[in-house]
Amino acid sequence: MTNVSFPEQDAVREWLLPEVLHGKYASDPTDFLALDSLLSPAERNERDVVRQFVETELRPHTREWFKTKPPLRELTRLFGRHRMFGKLIGQAAQIPPAVSFGLQMLELEAGDTAFRQLVSTQDNLVMFALARYGSPEHRAEWLPQLATGEAIGCFALTEPGAGSDIAGMRTVARHDGRDWVLNGQKRWITNGVDADVAIVWAKTEGGIRGFVVPTKTKGFSAVEIADKVSMRHSSSTELSFSDVRLPEAALLPLGSGPRPPLSCTSEARYGILWGAAGAARDCFHAALSRSLERTQFGHPLAAFQMTQQRLAEMCSKVCHATMLAIHLGRLREQGRVTAAQLSLGKLRNVQAGLEVAREARALHGGDGITLGFSPIRHLLNLEAVSTYEGTHEIHTLAVGRALTGIDAFR
Span 35-148: which CATH code? Predict the structure, then answer.
């Protein structure tokens, strides 16, 4: 291999230097491809408001809350005051603000996955289910309270023996006179201990149906799942239903079968794929800052070729994850996005987030396993995100089915 001579090296530097001096590369490394140009001024403004909210009111507490958990009811009301809930519900405009909502998810998860998860649960799952499948009475009673954060909702689908396999659901609801009687268990239900209302999915003689269950109903119990090392900012719960008696009006009237709950989880995947891009961006920013500040062998880490290779690969993954999220958002605004496309987005962006988080943690050396730096926290959180709302394998098979027309789940 022929070595580049010093004069040629100088020529390369002279060619690159104006680009660096004019800030084309260095002004904002976390937006290396100038993806802000794909956003409208209104979208950028709304994004900046959420970013400021995260930086001033949430990020200062992430280290403490990882150890002790945030006060959920206070946090939910805080989110309500900042209008974090209900962006996609009841919009008067024909075009849903999908990209604007996605940017909100990105910025929240750049702070911590649990902040995005709070909105995903309240908005994508609970409020969406009520708005799409609930009665006018359901919507009138619960949507205003959920939007302001005065009420907390949970979405009860996953069971101890039935995660992605919705056909394996064992929670049942049977008619008893004019009432329904609900029995069964749900597990890994976000915010179940603190929730005021639960959207519970159960098998009935007529197929899978959803029920609006106030959590103070007799026979409803919630126990927090302890000893988590991931998603420590949020509450995960096991719910039990022992002869929970519900009026006929508790039934969600506008949907039956597996499609309604799966449509809700598809909504959640949309928020997840944006959030993963936010976690990746935060990890990349932390790694870049660390590599410029940390000195080894008389030079900053950023001066070593292998470090620059790592940074370049992380930058590429952040850019690709963000571009994919924006593209799927635009498709959604056009009413053209499919469930399989969202599966691909969730699959790829969470994987990219995990890869960036691992590299960023490694660049922090021994300090990288402490809570003084965000990558280890994002890495632990994303391990859980890769599992819920469909595992890596489930989304791989969903994409494979869309490509081939062959169902390979069994």
Answer: 1.10.540.10
Q: Strands 197-204, 153-156: parallel, antiparallel or unpaired by DSSP? A: parallel
* Chain centre distance of CA 89: 18
Question: Are 279 and 357 a contacting pair, CB within 8 Å?
Answer: yes
- Find the catalytic residue in 74, 159, 389, 393: 389
Place of tokens 């469930």: 339
Q: How sure is the predictor about 360, in pLDDT bands with cuts at 50, 70 and 90?
A: very high
What is the rounded CA–CA span in Å between residue 262 and residue 175?
A: 24
C-beta of residue 230 within 8 angstroms of C-beta of residue 237 = no
Residue pLDDT, tens place only, 104-161: 999 999 999 999 999 999 998 999 999 999 999 999 999 999 999 999 999 999 998 8
- Would you list the domain boundaries of the chain? 35-148, 153-250, 259-404
- Beta strand ranges found along 87-235 (DSSP E): 153-156, 172-176, 179-190, 197-204, 207-214, 220-224
Backbone phi and psi for residue 395, each to the nearest 5 degrees, phi listed first:
-70, -30
Query: How far is 206 from 202, CA to CA, in rounded Å?
Result: 11
Phi, psi of 165 (to 5 degrees): -85, 85
Architecture of domain 153-250: Beta Barrel (2.40)
For β-strands 179-190 and 236-247, DSSP reports them as antiparallel
Instruction: Return the amino acid letter for 298.
Output: G
Amino acid, single-letter form, for residue 173: A
Question: Can you tell me the mean pLDDT for 261-269?
Answer: 90
Start-to-end Cα distance in the chain: 52
Using alpha carbons, select from 139, 391, 102, 89 the residue that is nearest to residue 271: 102
Is domain 259-404 given the CATH code 1.10.510.10 in the classification? no
- State both tokens at 69: 């958990």
Respond yes or no: is residue 205 known to be catalytic.
Answer: no
